Structure to design on (275 residues):
């Protein structure tokens, strides 16, 4: 999906962090910084970013091979936990030492995984600081840059049209009602939780405690609190949709006569600066 501008914009392909990552991962062979990023970063996002940046497939696979350093202690911990659960015919642990050793290996696993992440962050910061010129030399994705500029302008327009002192009566009513609903729902749950929900824990049986119906978790007052919460979200969505339509009208330079009179002058000057 890297050919979609929205995808590249979402991951911040033009950011300093992404450029630093591209600079490190784009080098051939194995290096501590390259390996640390590939095995210290979150698995799926790191792999996806490598694809979006069009990095060499086989070079990335090569740099990921040392992940065995993370996998080995994890597998060992799982094996020892299983061994610790085994019992003899008399009920005694079959491997009485396995529980203690599994705790040690679990600690080692956490240290290795956390350490790899710390090393990755360290080398990214080092690259951004000490190779700043090389990072800046990487060209921006022009399509993403244009989209970022447009989004920033739209955000400024949205901020202008949603200024509280300039909002019309209906949008003000929407946001005030939404606030009242969410605050009421929150206090209902916090102060009257026993009247809103049937007491139930993760270890309780749904069949025995709730009569086999998960909806029985909610008491009448609970349904009211959930309804208020949902109604608040709907009102917020309506308010934001209204604001985005107004902001789009200003950003696109159309329907200027229909925007809030108090915002015309500031919005026009904002658009002039953007142009």
């Amino acid at each position: 999906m890297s050919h979609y501008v929205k995808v590249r914009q979402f991951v911040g392909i033009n950011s300093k962090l992404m450029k630093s990552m591209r600079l490190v991962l784009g080098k051939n062979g194995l290096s501590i910084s390259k390996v640390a990023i590939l095995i210290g970063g979150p698995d799926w996002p790191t792999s996806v970013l490598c694809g979006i940046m069009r990095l060499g497939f086989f070079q990335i696979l090569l740099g990921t091979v040392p992940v065995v350093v993370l996998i080995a202690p994890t597998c060992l911990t799982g094996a020892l936990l299983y061994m610790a659960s085994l019992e003899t015919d008399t009920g005694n642990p079959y491997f009485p030492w396995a529980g203690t050793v599994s705790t040690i290996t679990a600690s080692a696993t956490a240290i290795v995984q956390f350490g790899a992440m710390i090393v990755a962050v360290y080398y990214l910061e080092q690259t951004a600081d000490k190779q700043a010129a090389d990072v800046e030399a990487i060209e921006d994705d022009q399509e993403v840059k244009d989209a970022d500029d447009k989004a920033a302008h739209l955000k400024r327009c949205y901020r202008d049209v949603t200024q509280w002192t300039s909002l019309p009566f209906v949008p003000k009513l929407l946001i005030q009602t939404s606030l009242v609903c969410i605050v009421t729902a929150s206090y209902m749950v916090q102060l009257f939780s026993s009247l809103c929900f049937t007491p139930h824990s993760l270890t309780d049986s749904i069949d025995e405690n709730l009569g086999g119906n998960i909806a029985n978790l909610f008491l009448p007052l609970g349904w009211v609190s959930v309804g208020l919460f949902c109604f608040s979200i709907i009102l917020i969505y309506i308010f934001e949709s209204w604001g985005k339509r107004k902001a789009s009208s200003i950003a696109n330079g159309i329907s200027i006569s229909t925007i809030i009179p108090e915002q015309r002058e500031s919005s026009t000057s904002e658009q002039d600066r953007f142009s």
About this structure: Residues 144-274 form one domain. Confidence is low (pLDDT under 50) at residues 255-271.
